[in-house]
Amino acid sequence: MTGADNPFGESRISFRLASSRLVWVTDFSYSETYASLLDGWPREDLNEQIIEQALTYAAAHMVSPAPVYMIPPAKSPVPQDVLAAYERSLQGTQRLYSRPPASTLSPIRCIAHLESEPMSDLFDGSCLKVVWFEQPFFKAPLVAMLAASLRDIPWEKNAVDFIN
Asked: Which of 12, 29, 84, 127 is the most exposed, fewest CB within 10 Å of its CB?
């Protein structure tokens, strides 16, 4: 979305939430969800560790002290061929992690810092950091992916107002 609806013209990505609130993206990053998994299989404890690391990163490294909201991640069951390969890998060995693979998170971890008009007239704006896990989106326009993924954020319940 650009033009009169966007206070920054074309210099920032903006879109409307389902609540009709206009938000704009001031920071966005992504990485492979399992980039640190060099050997082995996704496990529930690893999934929880990846989620915690994403929340910690968003809290510490994004633009402002805005609160962090996480869109609950969808977890996919591990495909049967992966479970079969896991079983084959254990034959005749003692492995440290002998638990079967758990569900998997979506392959792309995303973090965005969003801003909007203030919720109270006493402030200059409102902001929120969002963490979510996404399917590969590289062939679609970035604004389309962001708008579709983030449209249902409960802004008024999670964002905070700020003064410049």
From this structure: 84
